[in-house]
Structures are given as C-alpha cells and as structure tokens.
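Quick one before lunch.
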Amino acid sequence: MELPFAESYKIKVVESIRRSNREEREKWIHDAHYNLFQLKSDQIFIDLLTDSGTGAMSDKQWGGIMTGDESYAGASSYYKLKDAIADITGFPYFLPTHQGRAAENVLFSVLVKEGDIVPGNSHFDTTKGHIEFRRATAIDCTIDEAFDTTIDYPFKGNVDLGKLEDVLKKSGEKVPFIILTLTNNSAGGQPVSLENMRDVRDLANRYNKLVLYDSARFAENAYFIKLREPACRDKSIREIVAEAFSYADMMTMSSKKDAIVNMGGFIAMRDQELFRQCSVFNIMFEGYITYGGMSGRDMNALAQGLYEGTDFDYLETRIKQVEYLGNMLLDFSIPLQQPIGGHAIFIDVKRFLPHLPKEEFPAQTLAIQLYIEAGIRGVEIGTLMADRDPVTRENRYPALEMVRLAIPRRVYTNNHMDVVAVALKNVFDRRNEIKSGLRITQEAPIMRHFTVELEPLAT
Ligand code: F0G
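Model of the F0G complex:
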C-alpha cells in the first residue's frame, strides 16, 4: 500500500486558540463595523486573513534570533543575509526594509515619477498604491484566462505579451519598468511560467526597459513551475529560482511570505548605481544601509527562512495543504479560482452569491457570513479593496469579486482545514437567505479596506 502524505516537520511549540459562539461573534463584528481588520485576534478561531507575517518560524530560525548582531553599522547578521540573498537570487546588492511595501516605497522613490506608466500582472494593492500616490498609472496586462475562474490554465499569473507590447509601443517613454508579481496574488495566487518570464525579458530588452519582480511568493511560484512546466520537471527549486531571477534587474520582497518571518523585507538589484540611489531613500525612510528597518536577529531569521522557504519538501507540504482545503470545497461545489493557488483559496463570489448586486460588496458580505458561522476570518479581494478611481473617485469594480482564505505557513493542521470547509459549506447551503449586502458609512481616501466602516443594508 502506498504511504499517505504527511508534513515534512513536527510541532515543537503551540499556541492556544479559543472557540466562540455565534451570539458573541455577531456582537463583535457589529462593534468592528463589519470590517474584519477591526476584530481582535482572540475573537477569531481560525485566522486566514493573510499568509503574511503569520507563519511559524522553525527552531533554526529561533536559534538565529538568539545570535543576532545588533550593531548599528556593519552587523554580521546583515552580511549573513546579503550572502543568502546573493546565493538564492543572484543579486549582489540589497537593502533591508521593514516590509514589502517599504521596499516599494524606497525603490519607487528612485524610479517612479508623475505621469509614468507601470505595466505588469495585477499589481498588489500596496504596489498600486505606491504607484498612484506618485500620480503614475499601473496597467494590468495579465492574461484574460486569469479572470475566468472556471478555466483550468496552469499559469494564470502570466503577462499577456500582446497587451504589454501595446503599452510599450504606445507609451514606452513613460514606462520606468515592467513589474511581474510572483505569484500573482490578486488573481488567486497564480504562478507565472518561466517561459513567460523569459518572453517578458526579451520584450523589455527590445524596448530597453528594466524588469522588477515583486517576489513575495517567488518560491511557491517556482514549485508550480517545477510541477507544471515540462522543461523544468527535473530542475531543483533553487535552480528554477536562480533562472527566474536571472531574467530580472531587481526585486522587492515582502519576507513575511515565502521567507517565513513575521516582519521584514528587502530590495535587491544587479546595478550598483541603482543601489546607491536607493540607499539614500533607504537611510531616510528605513534606517542605515546595514539594518534598514530590521533588527540583526530578524535578519538572521530571514537568512535561514530563505533557505527553508525554497526547500522542496517544505513547499510540497505547504501547497498540498492549500490543495487539500480547495479540493474539499470543490467537492461541496463551492465556486473558486482554479487551479487552486499557492497560498490561498479564492472563492468566486459572483458565482457564490450571484443574486447580490456589486454595489452591495458581495465578497465582504460573504467574508462576514463566514466569520459569523465559525469564527473564521478571510479577506475581501473585491470592490472594497479595488478602491475608488483616483481621478473620477468612482468605485472601481474589478473583474473578480473574491474572498481569499490565505493559509499561514506551518501553522494550522488539516483538522482546521476541515472546519473551514464545513463552515463554508454551511454558508453555501443557506446562500439564498443572504438577501442583501453592506453599505459604507466611513472610508479613507486611499487603501480604504483596512479602516472602512460598513453596516448591513437589512437587519
Ligand atoms: N506584494 C505582494 C504580492 C503582496 O502580497 C504584498 C503583501 C506586498 C507586496 C506588500 O508586502 O505586506 O510586507 O508590505 N501582501 C499581504 C497579503 C499583505 O495579505 O497578501 P508587505
């Protein structure tokens, strides 16, 4: 008999979580103005808000915490991290930042100016925010297949080369760089193929443009390449990662994802002059070059995390857990982005609650219902997050209205996944009783989803 699959680690430290009852949750979510970001963590049983900074560090990472070098300048922890980044990505220059969006802020301070156009594959919301904040425009050139959740296409994160070339032809002089997000978070944790990266590089070379990878989930992307791209079947994750980065000029990293740390980020690049220019902003916004927003101990944990995060056995364990949840949901006929993504399940709310008008924030409505059902916190990736158009101030209605259930790394067991699946099935079974959605009572001018206040349209 073939042995069943099991995790490639065992558990050394645990943290208690508390169940609550429906009555408590109804009160808590009311007090939180129907915004899941406003809940307290002890009001949540299973927290799938994000896979960012929520992973469990290993014993070796905690060991690194104890031996961090906290020197202001020239810390050995900085050099350890520099070596790890160069080893894994091939980039000789790097700057630590406190997280991914800080890396964007520093790099874009050098590269993005008013009137610029930054094409890419579904920019993450902070990336888009940093572009729009500089009065520049982000243009989404993702392939159309990504926006139909029923199409089973292996690389839904890919850039449509035709769309990208149109932008370069029409407004090439305004494009400072092309951005590839690995994996494509907004389209459902979908990977970009190595072939697509190569083609984007060729196109960038023809138009003399830089290529930036937003690399938050670069290792999960490499796992999918190994499994789905026939030419890469026999390559190791590390070989795929090295080849992928060879097609980029620079990267921003939110280390809170694939490097399995609770806080941290960095920018890495090939060009010394760009490094020098970024250093000035890094010193102003983050900290001196050799710590830039991170403590020495955290740089140690990050260096170790980069190796663990690119280990095949770890990645297999991780992505199979996401798949385990996704397959249960599919068995319950719950509509979701297919194929199942790397870090999360993305529920297709236009198919889950087709009777709710888009103006009533159906994805947020579903996320609230799932919380009330079982204390599970997901996140809306839909109209709330898409925000208003910066010029017209009209609501933007994205092609996909989704609830994301992001799975923290090495944190929950498959028993927790069983609870999530059944809770969602219960909501699905009573979906026709959800007759109306929500209305905004308070919102911020940019990135409103974090602090927005809402109320139900019917009580
Ligand atoms: N890029 C991508 C693709 C991301 O998913 C994120 C964060 C960032 C950049 C920004 O990094 O949070 O370290 O500042 N994504 C989190 C999420 C917040 O829940 O998907 P950060």
